């Protein structure tokens, strides 16, 4: 192990779903999860009613469970509860982490979007979140973003707090090194995985993380 590797936290992949998980998506998810280690998968669907999301979630949840990948639901505490997800990701307008903890229990993984804000992240930590998410680090077409984060936010967080931090927004194998080297515990990635060959993309990200830790 190099000196750099010893001082950096482990950095794991956290995949975010595309908005369409119908058709061949379950096969694509399987390929992605079998290409290289992935820690978590977030089901991020928009403008679809909860019954339909629950129906779409079922095979994906099974694929994740079979491979020990945490299955996180975006936006909705009630949906996470209903389908027995491993956790929920909450944006600033999506609900209270304290309430999520009461409803989902001690074992649930609760993540909170903190944009580029140290204050929001400390608040989320105090509210009992299991991770804080900072972003967007790079331009993204997956979502219209209003906040831009820089790697020094990750270094600052890492130097002061034990709570894991997630980096999100436009992350690719080509641009992820500064985030890994700044101490991101997880890289959350959507477009770079699903826009083309998902297995090659996951392998590429995994290799890029390993190389960044060695450099
Ligand atoms: C890991 C992770 N980080 C941030 C987000 C963004 O959440 P939010 O701000 O609620 O925006 P939407 O994803 O709901 O559009 C996320 N989903 N996951
Ligand atoms: C869902 C999401 N939240 C962001 C934030 O900054 O909070 S950026 C983002 C999009 C992530 O997808 P991609 O990897 O395709 O950029
Ligand atoms: Mg949200």
TrEMBL record:
Name a Pfam family for this protein: TMP-TENI
Sorted alphabetically, the keyword list is: Magnesium, Metal-binding, Thiamine biosynthesis, Transferase
Question: What EC designation does it have?
Answer: 2.5.1.3
What the record notes about the co-factor is:
Binds 1 Mg(2+) ion per subunit.
Descriptive protein name: Thiamine-phosphate synthase
Q: In which pathway does it act?
A: Cofactor biosynthesis; thiamine diphosphate biosynthesis; thiamine phosphate from 4-amino-2-methyl-5-diphosphomethylpyrimidine and 4-methyl-5-(2-phosphoethyl)-thiazole: step 1/1
Q: Which GO terms describe its biological process?
A: thiamine biosynthetic process; thiamine diphosphate biosynthetic process
Q: List required co-factors.
A: Mg(2+)
What is this enzyme's class at the first EC digit?
A: transferase
Q: Native species of this protein? A: Novosphingobium fluoreni
> Do the record's keywords include Magnesium?
yes
Residues reported to bind Mg(2+):
75, 94
Q: Where is the Thiamine phosphate synthase/TenI domain?
A: 13-193
Q: Which residues bind 4-amino-2-methyl-5-(diphosphooxymethyl)pyrimidine?
A: 42-46, 74, 113, 143
- The residues that hold 2-[(2R,5Z)-2-carboxy-4-methylthiazol-5(2H)-ylidene]ethyl phosphate are 140-142, 170
- Please verify whether the record's keywords include Magnesium: yes
Sorted alphabetically, the Gene Ontology cellular component annotations on this record are: cytoplasm
Question: Member of which family?
Answer: Belongs to the thiamine-phosphate synthase family.
Q: Which reaction does it catalyse?
A: 2-(2-carboxy-4-methylthiazol-5-yl)ethyl phosphate + 4-amino-2-methyl-5-(diphosphooxymethyl)pyrimidine + 2 H(+) = thiamine phosphate + CO2 + diphosphate; 2-[(2R,5Z)-2-carboxy-4-methylthiazol-5(2H)-ylidene]ethyl phosphate + 4-amino-2-methyl-5-(diphosphooxymethyl)pyrimidine + 2 H(+) = thiamine phosphate + CO2 + diphosphate; 4-methyl-5-(2-phosphooxyethyl)-thiazole + 4-amino-2-methyl-5-(diphosphooxymethyl)pyrimidine + H(+) = thiamine phosphate + diphosphate
- State the encoding gene: thiE
What are the recorded GO MF terms, alphabetically? Answer: magnesium ion binding; thiamine-phosphate diphosphorylase activity
Give the function comment from the record: Condenses 4-methyl-5-(beta-hydroxyethyl)thiazole monophosphate (THZ-P) and 2-methyl-4-amino-5-hydroxymethyl pyrimidine pyrophosphate (HMP-PP) to form thiamine monophosphate (TMP).
């Amino acid at each position: 192990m190099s000196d750099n590797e010893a001082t950096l936290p482990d950095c794991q992949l956290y995949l975010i779903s595309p908005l369409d998980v119908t058709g061949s998506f379950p096969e694509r998810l399987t390929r992605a999860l079998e290409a290289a280690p992935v820690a978590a998968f977030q089901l991020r669907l928009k403008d679809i009613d909860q019954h339909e999301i629950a129906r779409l979630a079922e095979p994906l949840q099974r694929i994740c469970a079979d491979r020990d990948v945490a299955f996180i639901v975006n936006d909705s505490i009630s949906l996470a509860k209903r389908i027995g997800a491993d956790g929920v990701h909450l944006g600033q307008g999506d609900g209270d982490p304290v309430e999520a903890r009461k409803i989902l229990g001690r074992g649930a993984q609760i993540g909170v979007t903190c944009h580029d804000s140290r204050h929001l992240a400390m608040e989320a930590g105090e509210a009992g979140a299991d991770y804080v998410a900072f972003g967007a680090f790079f331009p993204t077409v997956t979502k219209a973003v209003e906040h831009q984060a820089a790697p020094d936010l990750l270094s600052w967080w890492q130097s002061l707090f034990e709570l894991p931090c997630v980096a999100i927004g436009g992350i690719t194998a080509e641009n992820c090194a500064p985030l890994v080297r700044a101490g991101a515990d997880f890289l959350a990635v959507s477009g770079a995985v699903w826009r083309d060959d998902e297995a090659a993309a996951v392998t590429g990200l995994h290799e890029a993380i390993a190389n960044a830790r060695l450099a």
